Amino acid sequence: MKILVCISHVPDTTSKINFTDSDTKFDANGVQFVINPNDEFGLTRAMWFKEKQGAGVDVVTVGGPEVEPTLRKALAIGADQAIRVDTAALDGYQVARELAAVVKSGGYDLVIAGRESIDYNGGMVPGMLAELTGAEFVNNCIGLEVDGGAARATREMDGGKATVSATLPLVIGGQKGLVEESDLRIPNMRGIMMARKKPLNVIPGVSAQADTSFVKFHKPAPKGAVKLVDPDKLDELINLLHNEAKVI
Amino acid sequence: MSVLVYTETDQGKLKKTALEVASYAKAVADKLGSSVTAVCINADDASQLGQYGVNKVLNIDYEGEFNAKRYASFIGQAAQQEGADVVVVSQSADSRYIAPILSVGLEATYASNVIGEPSSTNPFIVQRNTFTNKAIGDLEMKSGKKILGLSSNAYGVHENPVDSSVEGFSPEKVDSGIKVQSVDKAGGTVSIADADIVVSGGRGLKGPENWGMIEELAEVLGAATACSKPVSDLGWRPHSEHVGQTGKPVASNLYIAVGISGAIQHLAGINASKVKVVINTDPEAPFFKAADYGVVGDAFEVVPQLIEKLKEFKAQNA
Ligand SMILES: Cc1cc2nc3c(=O)[nH]c(=O)nc-3n(C[C@H](O)[C@H](O)[C@H](O)COP(=O)(O)OP(=O)(O)OC[C@H]3O[C@@H](n4cnc5c(N)ncnc54)[C@H](O)[C@@H]3O)c2cc1C
Ligand SMILES: Nc1ncnc2c1ncn2[C@@H]1O[C@H](COP(=O)(O)O)[C@@H](O)[C@H]1O
Known about the structure:
The complex is a heterodimer of chains A (248) and B (318). Chain A is an alpha/beta fold and 248 residues long. Helix content of chain A is 29%, strand content 32%.
């Protein structure tokens, strides 16, 4: 089985979110970038398929040279080789079309992506990629097994979960639950040394165009200070929620 | 030309978010000078959508389980028939699953987490939440066709009665390699995604045996119950209740956090909620900075009293 894990290179959650170029671009200055948390769960699940079922695991990111440390980290965790599609990631549709070219030429059976990136929160690349490559798609995937040509996946829904069977090729939008958090891997020294020797192939993109762009970013209006209510005067809280906030 | 809106049903009944996306579609259609067509699957009473500005409803009779590819194709066929350039969907888990598939099918661009009406229709610009709600981006959508995913509770339900008709619609049924084997519905009566109010408990509640009062508070308010990550990791509550950056997103009208410190990863998932109330013994807990109303106090004293007072309030306002 050949697996491709799509890795989005995102600012760590605790980063300060600021913008430059008249508030049109994210200010990456001093920001720590990490593997998108949803993709980390997927990568760890891919390692399980590698170790238990002999799967080959490639990782891919669409982006400039700045994403390479993130790909190296994925190699240190255990991926066999990395691919960087050498073009800036502009929007979900463009990234999905770039990835579709990689998937088609690589002949992957299983593509593991994350349910969403924590930067632009698009939640669109995996589903688009599946549709562009004619693969089946399971979103919000919290459990995945593959046996021969078929997969069994569990998907989280709004009021519960569903288990489905799926034919390959398959794309998933994965999240926490694919593996336990305690099983997430941190690169060790040996992994980091080995990663240096593994291939990181830089390939040109297919010049997919973006159809959307951010014309401006704003910070949400600053919130007023919290109104504290005395624990002995909870009627006041109910009054505020009813008459002021109008939510009960 | 019309604006098409996918109005979701649950066992034949239109969901509350269906009424919200219909209201929103009406506002978008007014800006574009067009009408609204809704598409729904197995709706018992689709005519009520006329109350929210829908001129025409296409109701599909469908036997079988939810299938995202098939549903996307149904909506796509409706969009073709109606010549719709704008399709509005909710941000339920199902719609988030369907929309990217639909976007490829229609060659439309998709904006998720949209929080308001387009600020301009030429160029077409909408506001959407980004960076886990820490920033709002004005997104310009250049393609001819567009899909807008409206964040729940961002627009609200607005009555806007119009003449409305309901028609049967029988789209072609595409094949899918996905077959549902089993569905496991969570116990709670209200799901986090559909709830107006969410009551959430953290590690400050000490143990699973203390959740009775959280459930009771939720029941009095007609709310869904949720929890912080450590609470589900410890097995005190099911994983399906875990909210935050790595859990379910919450965009309710009211979020009540009991014994939750307000870590940035928790807030990332819940700060799209409109009004936040925090109950915590520690006045320094970071949640107080993110909340609208706060009670510095012991949950074991505050929550039972709050339940009593809410019951009185409900009795008076019934
Ligand atoms: C990558 C990553 C992702 C994460 N994702 C999530 C996520 O999705 N969701 C999430 O929730 N967390 C997430 N976390 C964890 C997060 O950082 C916090 O550790 C977690 O939210 C803390 O949970 P808590 O507030 O319940 O517990 P604590 O931080 O232990 O807080 C308990 C609170 O209860 C208060 N308290 C104690 N006794 C009482 C009492 N009697 N009455 C009232 N209050 C009381 C205390 O003052 C304290 O503020 C993530 C962390 C990482 C690193
Ligand atoms: N630039 C990128 N390169 C590779 N994969 C990506 C990229 N952007 C997004 N993805 C994948 O798509 C998933 C969802 O991202 P998004 O649609 O941007 O929210 C991520 O979790 C990744 O698996």
